[in-house]
Specification:
- The chain has 71 residues and is mostly helical.
- The protein has helices at 2-37, 63-67.
- The chain has one domain (2-51).
Length: 71
């Protein structure tokens, strides 16, 4: 009887621990760490190496040709 109550108690604490880990640690603390650290959160990847969007190269811009065509 006492052993089964202990197993139920251990199972309940394990379930609560995983719920707390899922709800608190992963959703709140990891998000807060990401906001605090910023781009350094991604230091092993290419995402941390670009400070601003890369310029678009190639092709022609039709806007200058249309600017002088009005009348």
């Amino acid at each position: 009887m006492i052993t089964s109550a202990g197993l139920v108690l251990a199972g309940t604490f394990a379930a609560l621990g995983s719920l707390l880990d899922t709800m608190i640690v992963r959703s709140v603390l990891v998000t807060a760490l990401t906001l605090d650290v910023g781009r350094w959160m991604w230091w092993p990847s290419e995402l941390s190496k670009h400070h601003e969007p890369l310029p678009v190269t190639g092709g022609s811009d039709p806007e200058p040709a249309l600017a002088g065509a009005g009348g």
